[in-house]
Amino acid sequence: MNGHMTNELGWMLDEVLKVPEARHAILLSADGMLRAHSQGIQRDEAERQAAALSGLQSISRSTAEFCAHESSPWQQTLVEFVDGYVFLVAAGAGAYLAVSAGQDVDMEAVTYSMHKLVDRLGKELTTPPRQDPAPGIA
Question: What sequence ranges are listed for the domain Roadblock/LAMTOR2 (predicted)?
Answer without folding.
Answer: 10-101
